[in-house]
# Entry
Amino acid sequence: MKRSASLLVLLLIAVLTLSSLTIVGSAFAQPLPEPSVPEFTAKNVGNTIEVTIKNQPLTPYENGSYPSLYYMFKYKDHNERVGFEYYDPVYFVLPSTYGGYYKASDSDFTVVSLSIEGHHFPSGQIDIQAIALVGNQYPTNMQNGTVYGFEGVVGSWSNIQTVAFEETIYIRTDGSVEGTDKLQRDGNVYTFSDNINAEITVEIDDIVIDGADYSLQGNGDGVGIHVPNNGNLEIINIKIQGFKFAIYFDYYSKNCNIISGNTLTNNTHYGIHITNSHNNSIFGNYIEDSGTGIQLVESYNNTIFQNKIVGNGEGIGFGSGGGHSTVFHNLIADNDYAFTFWASSHNTIYGNNLINNTNQVHAWSSSNNWDYESRGNYWSDYNGSDENNDGIGDTPYVITTSPEDYGDADNYPLMEPVDDTVIPEFPSWIVLPLVVALMMVAVVYRRKLSKTNQRRVEQ
# Structure
């Protein structure tokens, strides 16, 4: 009798257990409905596409829990044929394949920024599509667990949305602007009215490009401001980032340019690159995280002063040929090299703060002047003493040159950094007044040109 009762109890427990498993199993085994085609908007923001998606409602399991909602995207140049898309994430997702996904937010909308850095879109338009996935992702053993698999239901790709963005803006020889309405002209002064995500090519002389502290944003490629064969330009107050070259004066560019008050960051090759252009003034710029901050090639009689050049591969480079330039009162810090010279001589370098650079100078077939009128530079790695406390080191700071020793040295190394609020005496009494005079003439010329253009309009 007792044995029969025990068997009855065990049978009852088994029935209840199986029933509960059936209930739980049915809750999670129920088929998931296919997600709707995503509704979204997209716009170009710098080197990203910003996508805003309206989250769709999800059907809960019978136990009240919810599956997860994910999104994936693909995009291509508008003129490129289908099949040449970029996928973001990299791995294309289908059931039982692998990839990564963007999980929907808990709010009504999900905002995703897709990087387009390094991609080129010649048409100036990007086609983008989105797809929704409902289910769950899980890590795989591929690439150390950084690749995810997916279990669930994949929806259908959305229709293509085309995102327009500025590719190249031209300032033409007649003074007109093509490619944007964010560069406003007043006479020969062109002023940014908003941030610009494009390259600018200048085809005219004697103009001012004023960024008004707005940004010129690239996508990791190309040239921010390209000057193929023009000159007497002023490029001022622009934040330029995300290009190979921030500012590039090409081989046939002309002389007497002013580059001032710009912030040039995260440009992979050069902040400022000038080739075969002379008598330029480069001052008051901040340059960081570039291959080379300032590069001069076959260029003479340039003046570089009061710039902050930090955290680059090379601070200031002098390429093949050129020389007779003056570099003073700059902060050059935390670069792999402060200065590099390749067959460039007779430059005068003084009054600069050279701080924590891995290498201070690399000079090949070059001999230069490292002080002026008993004033040298501050070198953070100078180990000399100052017995008479005159602020000048008692022994020279030796500059190594190759393939032969030219005897270069800073004969008056400074013991303390230069106060960058003070402009030191210029090496030639006539050059600084000429720079000031040039700027005054430019102002007068701009006003006259503006009045002339106004009369033409009135006529």
